[in-house]
Design brief:
249 residues; alpha+beta; Cytidine Deaminase, domain 2; 5-stranded mixed beta sheet; disordered N terminus
Length: 249
C-alpha cells in the first residue's frame, strides 16, 4: 500500500512500491522441474530491467520526500504568520509601516458656543473686561487670553489654579494651548486674592521674562502680564517695566 509522507497534507503523489526481484537461486532450489528452470531463465532475462525501474522509483520517491518536506515547512510558516506580525517572519509592507507603540493625537476642545461678536484688544483695560471673574476668586488663578493676528479675542485658557498666595506656572503649559488654538498673541493675567498691595513679586517678574523669551522663540507675542485684585485695581507689567520687552543690544 502507498505511504502518506506529509501527515494528511498530500501535496504530491505518494511513493510507489518497488518491483520485487526474485532470486534465481531461490527459484532453482525450490523448483526442480523444467518449467521452473524456464521461469528462472525468464526472470534472469528481465532482472536488469527490474533493477533499472526500481532505481528510477527510488529516485522519484526521494524527490517526492524533498517536495513534501518543503510543502510542510511552507504550511507551518503560513500558520505562524497569520497569528500576528510579532513572529520572526517576513511581514507585509503595511505591517512594517505600523508603529507598535501608542500614537498620540492632539485636539482642542472648545467649551461653550463661539461668540458672534468680535472683540479687539488695544489697551490693557480692554483685556480687563474679559478677566473680571478673577477679581472675586478666592485662590490665585493664572490665565491666558488668546488673540489672533488682528488682536481679536479667540478664547481664554486657565493655565493653573493655586492656593491663596501662589500659583505654579510653566511656559510649556502656557504655550501648549496657544499653539493648538493657532494664536498669534497672548495676554497672561493672575490675581492677588489676599488683597495685599498690588505689586509684582520677584517670581512674577521672572515668569514674565521667561514667557517673553519663549514666545519669541515660538513666533508668538506676549503683549502683557496683568495683575488684578478684588479692589478693582489692575497692574500692567508692560506699562511699568517696558524694559522686559526691549530686545537685547
Amino acid at each position: 500500500m502507498p505511504t502518506n509522507l506529509t501527515n494528511n497534507l498530500m501535496p504530491f503523489p505518494t511513493k510507489v512500491a518497488s518491483f520485487e526481484s526474485v532470486s534465481l537461486d531461490a527459484v532453482a532450489s525450490d523448483s526442480k522441474s523444467a518449467e521452473s528452470d524456464s521461469q528462472a531463465d525468464e526472470l534472469d532475462f528481465f532482472k536488469p530491467e527490474f533493477d533499472s525501474q526500481n532505481a528510477m522509483l527510488d529516485s522519484g520517491n526521494d524527490e517526492l520526500d524533498s517536495y513534501n518536506a518543503q510543502f510542510a515547512v511552507l504550511m507551518d510558516h503560513s500558520s505562524i504568520e497569520s497569528k500576528g506580525p510579532s513572529k520572526r517572519f517576513k511581514r507585509s509592507l503595511r505591517q512594517r509601516l505600523k508603529y507598535f507603540i501608542p500614537r498620540f493625537k492632539l485636539c482642542l476642545v472648545q467649551e461653550g458656543k463661539k461668540s458672534r461678536e468680535v472683540f479687539t484688544i488695544r489697551t490693557p483695560l480692554d483685556a480687563i473686561d474679559f478677566l473680571e471673574p478673577l477679581r472675586l476668586a478666592s485662590e490665585e488663578h493664572f490665565v491666558a487670553l488668546h488673540l489672533n493676528v488682528r488682536h481679536e479675542v479667540i478664547g481664554l485658557h486657565e493655565i493653573s489654579h493655586g492656593t491663596v498666595s501662589t500659583s505654579l506656572v510653566h511656559p510649556r503649559e502656557v504655550f501648549k494651548a496657544a499653539i493648538l488654538a493657532n494664536s498669534s498673541a497672548i495676554i497672561v493675567c493672575h490675581n492677588h486674592p489676599s488683597g495685599s498691595y498690588l505689586w509684582p513679586s520677584p517670581d512674577d517678574m521672572t515668569t514674565t521674562a521667561q514667557l517673553i523669551k519663549g514666545a519669541n522663540i515660538l513666533g508668538l507675542t506676549l503683549l502683557d502680564h496683568l495683575i488684578v485684585d478684588r479692589n478693582d485695581e489692575t497692574y500692567s507689567i508692560r506699562e511699568n517695566h517696558p524694559e522686559l520687552w526691549e530686545e537685547p543690544k
